[in-house]
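A common beginner's mistake is to predict each chain separately and then try to dock the pieces by hand. The better habit, illustrated here, is to supply every component at once so that their relative placement is modeled jointly.
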Amino acid sequence: MRIAVLNRDRCQPKKCDYLCIKFCPKVRTGDEAIVIGEKGKPEISEILCAGCGICVNKCPFDAIHIVNLPEELESGIVHRYGKNGFSLYGLPVPKRNRVVGLLGPNGIGKSTCLRILSGELKPNFGEERELEWDEIIKRFAGSELQEYFRRIANREIRVSVKPQYVDAIPKFYSGEVRELLERVDERGLLSELAEDLQLRKILDRELKHLSGGELQRVAIAATLMKEADFYFFDEITPYLDIYQRINATNVIREYTKNSSSLVVE
Ligand code: SF4
Ligand code: SF4
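With all components supplied together, the output reads:
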């Protein structure tokens, strides 16, 4: 079965005049395969869409793609972003005293995995409603993730998350690097991490004046400075050169020895 799937973040209906809907052959013959839905964005009917791909070619913002959807995959959904939205199948299991890496191209759901495992996003298993934690825990029965989510639900797990887009940091925090790091340094690691991540020279610099690579290293340090059972890193390589990448990997391994970490790339 082939159907069109919408990437809501890319879709900009105010700028395109709904070309996807206008050119859909099913719509032209009276079937509502793609209609204007919630918040003015298109909604694609899994039943009526023929997967012809015309809307994919017409969309100027690359907001639709075609997926092959075998029937059996319907049963393994962990999370779906609304009707016709992206679906995630499966989750990695964070391991104690291990660094787990999650690698792959953009758009396969790595950040969604991270948001779910950090407790920021509740998995909905493809249902169009928010599930209670009890229900979520039951759905993971028989897997290692059941105990993990029980602890997340009961707030027995502390997590520390490095966000993906480090260039947004100066929009949320002002002041100098040292001030930010001192504020989050629950583990008393400022001195060591400033040394290990080559931050000493920029400690007294304003966050808004940092380069992308400097912001990336500050974000990694800030994440590691928090007391947590699980450390999540949503991409550590952007803006870093090859030596800095290797160093950042070693630093993460070193400072999460007695906990767990998941790195998404
Ligand atoms: S894939 Fe074809 S049938 Fe489906 S919504 Fe797009 S244009 Fe319409
Ligand atoms: S999917 Fe593309 S063509 Fe359709 S409304 Fe969104 S931006 Fe416009």
